């Protein structure tokens, strides 16, 4: 059955399975109408359509078509929701830029990867992104793995370096691509067998530079070393700056990746994943857009969360797109919207609680339910971190509000105990003890012992024990 038809009123309609005809919104007409391709996705049907105006993409979720190309001569559907014209490759109706229609192709052996001369295209049922850290001229795919001559990548929540798993596909590559001079060949040009340590995790042979990582360590099991080739590194001028950053005469490197925008001459490490040159700030190898390099500072002790600021903004790390709209996902530094840089303060070593003049932040996210004026941080006892306001008691581990505690009357007695007017609370167990007599409850030493008018309390192996007097 034709899904898209022209009705008696010369309008384009979608014919549903139950016989109902629904008008296709967006402005497509019957003049020159043609169905170029349909793409079933579950019970929905998406489509590329055409009329005298140009090429349309039909979004089945909104029942609306959008005009996105007038290049009808060059336009063709590559596969499902990939298409191209003379200027762009499209995902649905969205142009990918840069893209090269002439070199665009789907990679065999996988439903996930395509490529052109600029980048890899990565698509699963939930997400789409492009990735430019792979040499697409030598890209080979096998299901959710993709490799070039030097590095192996794996698709999960995003595309990740997966060189520690090369053993999983090395035999397959040797069987199917024996003549390509990649890392699976015994005469590969950049084996790290004879690499010597420069400093920290930086290693080198006479011609190549590597960054070492460890993985798979555990109880009674040694960690496995993986040596990642630092592509394009100039061996004669290569200089490690610290554990994660290095440079040579041409480039700055974060681990094994090139930071293409960074200036080698002025670049400096700021510790952890942070660095800057004379113009820009970088985190995890990606430029922090809009950050002021001159006034930028890392808020000490919380590098794992990326807390930092400049004269205008406060930042923290999030797993997000490295660029918009199609950048691959990774840990990047993003602004905390609305944060006041002048008064922002991290209160705990873990970074669990932070404040500025107006708001409270829990793990870098504004918590609008907590009252800033009465907010007080109480205790940091990894992994627990406790705070209160006039309304309640809060635990940052799990972002939990403790039910049954009145924040206005709650007092912290020591690192084991607290109470409000009606109930006793243990910071060790996270439990509320309403049967304890709050009025007479008091601590008796700094090892967790306490008492009320009827009972004595102690803490052993993370549990509260009660004994009648």
From TrEMBL:
Stated name of the protein: DKNYY domain-containing protein
Organism field: Paenibacillus cucumis
């Amino acid at each position: 059955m034709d899904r898209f038809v022209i009705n008696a009123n010369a309008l384009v309609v979608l014919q549903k399975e139950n016989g109902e005809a629904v008008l296709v919104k967006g402005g497509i007409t019957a003049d020159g109408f043609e169905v170029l391709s349909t793409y079933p996705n579950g019970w929905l049907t998406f489509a590329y359509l055409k009329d005298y105006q140009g090429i349309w993409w039909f979004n089945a979720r909104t029942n609306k078509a959008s005009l996105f190309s007038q290049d009808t001569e060059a336009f063709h559907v590559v596969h499902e929701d990939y298409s191209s014209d003379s200027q762009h490759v499209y995902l649905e109706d969205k142009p990918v830029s840069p893209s090269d229609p002439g070199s665009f192709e789907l990679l065999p052996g996988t439903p996930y990867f395509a490529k052109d001369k600029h980048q890899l295209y990565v698509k699963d049922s939930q997400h789409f992104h492009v990735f430019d850290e792979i040499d697409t001229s030598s890209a080979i795919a096998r299901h959710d793995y993709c490799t070039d001559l030097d590095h192996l990548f794996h698709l999960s929540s995003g595309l990740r370096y997966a060189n520690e798993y090369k053993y999983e596909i090395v035999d397959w590559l040797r069987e199917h691509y024996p003549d390509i001079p990649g890392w699976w060949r015994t005469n590969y040009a950049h084996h790290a067998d004879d690499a010597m340590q420069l400093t920290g995790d930086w290693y080198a042979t006479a011609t190549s530079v590597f960054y070492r990582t460890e993985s798979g360590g555990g109880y009674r099991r040694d960690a496995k070393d993986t040596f990642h080739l630092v592509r394009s590194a100039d061996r004669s001028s290569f200089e490690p700056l610290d554990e994660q950053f290095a440079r040579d005469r041409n480039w700055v490197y974060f681990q094994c990746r090139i930071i293409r925008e960074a200036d080698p001459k002025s670049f400096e490490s700021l510790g952890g994943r942070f660095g800057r040159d004379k113009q820009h700030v970088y985190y995890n190898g990606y430029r922090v857009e809009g950050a002021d390099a001159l006034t930028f500072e890392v808020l000490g002790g919380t590098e794992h969360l990326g807390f930092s600021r400049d004269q205008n903004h406060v930042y923290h790390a999030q797993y997000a797109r490295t660029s918009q709209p199609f950048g691959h996902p990774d840990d990047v530094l993003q602004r905390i919207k609305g944060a006041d840089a002048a008064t922002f303060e991290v209160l705990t070593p873990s970074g669990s609680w932070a404040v500025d003049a107006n708001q409270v932040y829990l793990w870098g996210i504004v918590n609008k339910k907590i009252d800033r004026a009465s907010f007080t941080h109480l205790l940091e006892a990894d992994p627990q971190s406790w705070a209160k306001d006039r309304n309640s008691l809060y635990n940052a581990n799990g972002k939990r509000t403790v039910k049954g505690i009145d924040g206005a009357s709650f007092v912290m007695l020591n690192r084991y105990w607290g109470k409000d007017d009606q109930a006793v609370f243990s910071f060790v167990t996270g439990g509320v003890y309403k049967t304890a007599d709050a009025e007479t409850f008091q601590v008796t030493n700094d090892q967790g012992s306490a008492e009320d008018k009827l009972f004595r309390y102690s803490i052993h192996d993370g549990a509260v024990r009660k004994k009648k007097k």
